């Protein structure tokens, strides 16, 4: 019986994670280029799906950047609960949110990519989702705000 050393198995697992993450990143970039082309041709179609929480989609992004951030010694995390008034949070849990998951991922993939790109060792990036009741809308309306906070160098004011 052939025995594979534990260190080799761990290395293979890390490589598999990197390959998977890279594959998903390439798919998102290709999808973004296609969306851009379709928008320019007025052929873009928005295909919303219902999700219990925006955190579900955002957690996938954190996983995509995990390996790269570990190498750069950047802390990248997501706040695991929605912020906001408890009654609105319960409403979101009951009715969910409706977004196009591919478009949503594309947008936050690019924002997070820039945050990682301009961060240095010791910096941190965090994703926070907050819900707020819309005052002049129906009982079912709320605003979802997603913050990407980072301690990177930022952009110069222009």
Automatic annotation (TrEMBL):
Keyword Aminoacyl-tRNA synthetase recorded: no
Pfam families linked: HATPase_c
InterPro entries named among the record's database cross-references: 2C_system_His_kinase (IPR050956), HATPase_C_sf (IPR036890), HATPase_dom (IPR003594)
Domain (Histidine kinase/HSP90-like ATPase) ranges: 100-157
Alphabetical keyword list: Phosphoprotein
Gene3D superfamilies noted in UniProt: Histidine kinase-like ATPase, C-terminal domain
Domain of life: Eukaryota
Record's protein name: Histidine kinase/HSP90-like ATPase domain-containing protein
Organism, as annotated: Strombidium inclinatum
